[in-house]
Amino acid sequence: MNDLIQTVAVYALPVLFAITLHEAAHAYAAKFFGDNTAYSMGRMSLNPLKHIDPFGTILIPVLLYFATSGAFLFGYAKPVPINFGHLRRPKRDMAWVALAGPGANFLMALLWTLVIYGLVLGGVQEEFFMLMAKAGVLTNLVMFAFNLFPIPPLDGGRVLTSLLPNKYAYKFAQIEPYGFFIVMALVLLKVIYTWWMAPVMYAASLLLQLITYPITFLFH
Question: Does the keyword Zinc apply (predicted)?
Answer without folding.
Answer: yes
